Amino acid sequence: MTERPMLDPDLADAARHLLLTCRISSAQDPLRYRAVLRGRRELTDFFRAELGWGLHIHDVSGVVRLHKRRDDVPGDRGPRLQRRTGRGDLAPAQVLVLAALVCEQLWRRPRISLRELLQSVAQVCAAEAGTGRLPAFRIVAAEGVGKRQAQAAREDIVDAIKLLQADGEISVDADLDRAVTDENAEVFITADRDSLANKFASLSPTLLALGNRPIDQHVAALTAVSLPDTEPDAVVQRQASVEGRRLTALRRVVDDPAADPGDDPNPVGYLATSTGRERALNVASSLGLVTTVRRDWWEVVDPTGTASDADFPQGRKTERQGALALLSHLPYHDAIEISADEILTLFDEVRQDMPRWAAGYAERLPALVRAAATELVTVGLLRQTGEDRWQILPGVHLWRIRVRQGQAGPEGRHRATSGDDNPATGGQENQP
């Protein structure tokens, strides 16, 4: 690369953190917040010029927000349910809708009890449920509503409140989990209007008239920077322009685990040109990302783990081991797609050699097949094309997997005399 770095190395950590969370708070992360303040102009210019994203620093509330806009929004990411242990699942649509309704109520009443909030949201949903625009939300067991259904509704709104609490938008004065089962629990929720106003970055849904637009145009409308840019012709023109192609390609490089240079409206993709390749590599390097480039594929990793919450290939859980076993086979598969039955056959062969591996899945190997394939989809090595079929992506050729079978240790008080059949990743290489 011939160009100088676009970003001061002292700002790279904060920039990577913003790529993952889109938010830095002075209360929760004072070191990164101070780093952003010191380099506010450089960071703002970098995100705007290279990625077309706005960085906003709200001095009063002490919050930095990166507003990421993408026409090709990834479908496997988003807010995750807050759980006390482990990584929560992606929040379902109902929880996200309820989070928006909670924000609406808190904008009107910045301090409200959970009981009042439940009643207000239930009334809004009841008024709109007949139109299909809002889900049914019934919090009281009554005629036609069972106790389990009412409790599930309470769990959903508690999950929505936890999402807002984790983002620092609101504060709660008591245990929310107890409120799920105890209808008489006294919980008060407090919000700051400035924080709520800063949370949303799209144009007004009322001005966009989303109700009159086809669903497949909603993303383009919500990510547009101005009202004229939301028109279908303007969207197509923007995406096909050199600038639009550049932004799409660079956003994929910094925001996705992999990028396909051929996925471009132009016969010659932006990343396939010398100018585009040089600029993308410079942007990635400025952020501290490591890029492995093939003619047909880009693999991007963050050695620090700051820009992504994916920890592949680390970990010893059975699903991760299954994903690595599958990955070791994919470069030699004789087709561009692989089916669940073919993966199942592969795992059966592994278990014949190591009978004690995946013992917990012995009676339900199809579940392990789906879990292992999902791991590889997440890191951009497979793409799901059907219910039980996956396309093998070129990135699989960048990996070399070595599997080590556990050996028996020396006999002693805490050592077994038989070998351990569980496979462990003896090492993996990411090779160009």
Automatic annotation (TrEMBL):
It comes from Actinoplanes xinjiangensis. InterPro entries: CHP02678 (IPR013494). It holds the Pfam family DUF2398. Residues 407-432 are annotated as: Disordered. This is Uncharacterized protein (TIGR02678 family). It comes from the Bacteria.
